[in-house]
Amino acid sequence: MFYNEEFETLPREALRALQIKRLQQVLQRVYHTVGHYKKSLDAARVKPDDIKSLTDLHKLPFITRQDLQNNYPFGLFAVPMSSVVRLHASSGTSGRSTVFGYTKRDVETWSELMARSLVAAGLTKNDIIHNAFGYGLFTGGLGLHFGAEKIGASVIPMSGGNSKRQIMILQDFGPTAICCTPSYALHLAEQGAALGVDMKALKLRVGIFGAEPWNKAMCDEIEKIYGITALDIFGLSEVMGPGIAMECLEGRNGMHIFEDHFLVETINPQTGEVLPEGAEGELVFTTLTKEAFPLVRYRSGDISRLITEPCRCGRSHIKMERVLKRSDDMLIIRGINVFPAQIEAILTGIEGLEPRYQLIVDKSGALDSLELRVEVSEKTFSESGSVKALQKIEKRIVKDMKDYLGVAARVKLVEPNTLQQSQGTAAKVIDNRRI
Ligand code: DLL
What we know:
Layout lengths: L4 H4 L3 H22 L1 H9 L21 H6 L13 E6 L9 E5 H17 L7 E4 L7 H12 L3 E3 L6 H10 L4 E4 L1 H13 L11 E5 L5 H11 L2 E8 L4 E7 L7 E3 L4 E6 L13 E7 L10 E7 L1 E2 L11 E2 L4 E2 L4 E3 L2 E3 L1 H9 L4 E12 L2 E10 L1 H6 L3 H19 L4 E5 L14 E3 L4
Parallel strand pairs: 3-4, 3-5, 5-6, 6-7, 18-21, 19-20
Antiparallel strand pairs: 1-2, 7-8, 8-9, 9-14, 10-11, 11-12, 12-15, 13-14, 16-17, 18-19
Helix pairs in contact: 2-3, 5-6, 7-8, 8-9, 10-12
The structure holds 5'-O-[hydroxy(phenylacetyl)phosphoryl]adenosine.
């Protein structure tokens, strides 16, 4: 089943012709409207007109998350604010967050790609979709929602949290599909088991899971507990949100990237060298149709492999393997992207602390848990004899982590010079999750 058969099955030759045409248009537009691109293309001594084929793409400079942050909040928008109808953003303190804008047409395109994704999962207007992706600045909730409405399904805008209520609605409303992070699906199942609910007895037929890495074993477990087909959906807010790539019911080996809207390359994350199709590397995305926030050669940080063999489903778009690794130090905690540098920025904003910290990520049941150990400064340690003063600092860290990053952390203050003097952020992070 297709939502837009013509474009989803476009022969590759025609697809490539469409991609190059769209790429040239995007380049003209960003070069003339976004200061960053004019500067970066000029510095690389390339003009939009130099890009005559897709192989010329490698002449163009990359754009990175750092560039996005440097242009916070709206510096990379290619349209005036009067044309922007929606804003989403990543978590983080000012300057460490990134902001994404959408025109009316961008929302239309995104909804269509989400509609394609839902149809690829076998959903129709006869389905009831329980959407437990978070609504708000995160793109998961609204992204799924608009796609669900577009195919005419009945969508339950559940958002995250309130597990007992989620289970009640799963039982009472009888949704046929559920969308959330894979770990939240397992968490709901745990809660269901505690309440004596047999998840297999629900009407659910299919689950669409993403926003965090999950492996085949986790997929098998979800399928078994719920008695459903569990499909993978991929996306990143910078490029659009969910619906950049979607696993189809027929293939079950990777996710189709909607190539009429995105160009994808794989690069060596160390050298930036473009790798042959099929090699494992960092995915780099170029948006071909976005108006408000076009991106040319955005380094996603996601490590995957492209699958070029034709798929049984008939879609001509290439697939990407599950994303299980990143090329940078980004952590995904309960679906929320967190960088150690963002935590550092929070800690430096609080008086009485040393910048030395250690981050321990683990699982508590199915969900991620975060413990943050922070050294207090000598001064605070010797002066604040009172436990109360230390508790106040602890509380402040917990609050700032929640307010700016959206993550709940257990915070432990420790004496000065007790944490290992570690170089580089990787050493400061202990990730005990097995994925
Ligand atoms: O997570 C968008 C999304 C929402 C995707 C709902 C799927 C479902 P961000 O918050 O910007 O956007 O996080 C993007 O999450 O670069 C990957 O590292 C990771 N990610 C997203 N989907 C998957 C997936 C949304 N299916 C970052 N498997 C990306 C593994 C994923 N990692």
